[in-house]
Structures are given as C-alpha cells and as structure tokens.
Design brief:
With about 280 residues, this protein is of the alpha/beta class. The chain contains 10 helices and 11 strands.
Length: about 280
C-alpha cells in the first residue's frame, strides 16, 4: 500500500518555525507537543527539565519537535527560546483548549495549549503525530463532564502517542467514549489501556503491537479507508484519528514499564513510515 502523507498546509494565521516548516515540506517526521503541561501542569523548575526531555527524546529519534502554543496572540508550531522561557516562568499564561484559541488570539495573549488545542493547530498544518503524557476523558461521578480532548481526537487526522488517559478520570467510561467516537486505540507493547501513572488498569485493548512498523501499517490503512469514506471538518484530509498507548510512558519520568524516551523511537518510525 502506498503512502498517504497529506501535503503540509501553511495557514495564514498559524506561525510555523522555519526548521519545522522545512521538515514538513521535505516530508520529514515532525512530532507536535503540547505546552499546557509546561505552563500549568508541572512546577518550576521541573517544567524546564520536562521540556528538554520531551524535545530531546523526539530529536534523538531523528524527528523534529514542535511545541504548540499561542505566543502573544500568534498561534504557533514551535517556540523561540525567549518565548519558551516566558512560558516556563508560568506568569500570565492562560490555559487554552480548542474552543479558546480564537479568544487568545484576539486578546494577544500567551496561551498554553491542551491536547485539544494542540491537535487543532498541528492537524491544520499537516502534522501527523502528536505526543502527550495522558489525554483527558470522562470525569468520575460526573458523566456529563467530559474533556474537549475526546471531541478533538475524533476529528483530528493524527496519530496520538500517549500513556492512556489521566488516572483521575473514569477510565472505563473514557474507553467507551473513544469507541463510540470511532477513535482507534492501539497498544504498543501493552495489552491494557494505561492509566497515565500505571501500566495496568484491567481494561483490555482490542489491538496490540510490538513493532512500530505495525503501527505505521495500521495508520496507512486507516488513512486509506478515511480518504474513501469521509472528509475532515477542516476539509484538508480525511478525519481518521488513532491513539497509540504506550504502556506506562509518562512525560518527565518513569512509570511501571516505560519513560518519555520509550515511545520516541516508535513515533519516529511511525512518522517516517507514514511519509
């Protein structure tokens, strides 16, 4: 089966740093990263350590990392050094989900992007792979309280590499919602849906692989099916989301069976094989 790499789409409103833009134009692997974990999730100075680990793991595997954010009103793929320093200080940086992008842009604000906002920005410019620690989901004892991550996962044509959903959530309900929304979930070297800090949750996955090349093959087939049956709401490519859950890998440290460095090799192979 031939490759189905979408052409990068340079959006007039979204800034893409030159190195990332060149990689996209050349069909080289690019991995999107969120910024909310740096500006809201982790304290100082651990957030700077996490930023170096995230970017370093991606680059060590031969891919180009792009931290997504809104920098003083400009949605961006990639942060300049002074911008990253500003975000790491955590001063005056608002948390931005997909619905908040327009308001942050209009206000000229600094905005740290959640999973949902990161997917919205990255997919718009043709990036295929996004990595995060854990996705949002359905909250416990409040089934009506559901993260916007799930809706964005269902409409963004990207591979999402993560350590499952955050452990504070109702993981069973989140798993059911992912099924309802048509999001394919593949376990990479795990047969269970990880719970962010733990590799074992008792939730059995339908599909498990041990080789990143198998992930790439599934992704190519996924895109081939999507091109023939649906269109993305953004109109650029088929909406065929897919989550790769890595058993226990979390940003910034080790869990039961993995670390931030473990999935980096798989995302590079996946991105390269997809292109």
């Amino acid at each position: 089966m031939g490759t189905l790499l979408p052409r990068p789409v340079m959006h007039p409103l979204i800034r893409v740093l030159p190195r990332i833009a060149r990689a996209l134009a050349a069909g080289e692997p690019v991995v999107a990263l969120e910024s909310s974990v740096l500006a809201q999730g982790l304290p100082v100075p651990e957030n700077a350590d996490a930023a170096r680990a995230m970017v370093g793991a991606v680059e060590l595997a031969g891919a180009v990392a792009g931290i997504t954010a809104v920098a003083r009103g400009t949605p961006t793929i990639g942060l300049e050094a002074d911008e990253l320093d500003r975000f790491l200080r955590r001063e005056g940086v608002r948390k931005v989900s997909a619905r908040d992008l327009a308001t942050a842009i209009a206000a000229g604000a600094d905005g740290a992007t959640t999973v949902a906002a990161s997917l919205a920005l990255a997919s718009t410019v043709g990036i295929q792979v996004f990595v995060t620690g854990g996705i949002g989901g359905v909250h416990r004892d409040a089934p009506y309280d559901e993260s916007a991550d799930l809706a964005e996962l269902a409409r963004s044509p990207m591979v999402v590499v993560c350590a499952g959903a955050k452990s504070i959530l109702d993981l069973e309900a989140t798993w059911e919602r992912l099924e309802t929304l048509g999001v394919t979930v593949v376990g990479y070297r795990t047969s269970e849906l990880p719970g962010f800090f733990t590799a074992q949750t008792g939730i059995r996955l339908d599909t498990c692989v041990d080789d990143a090349r198998d992930i790439a093959a599934i992704w190519r087939a996924h895109r081939a099916l999507g091109h023939s049956r649906c269109r993305s709401v953004r109109g650029a490519s088929a909406s065929v989301p897919m989550i790769i859950t890595c058993g226990g890998g979390i940003i910034g440290g080790n869990a039961a069976t993995g670390s931030v460095a473990e999935p980096s090799s798989s995302i590079d192979e996946t991105a390269s094989a997809s292109g």
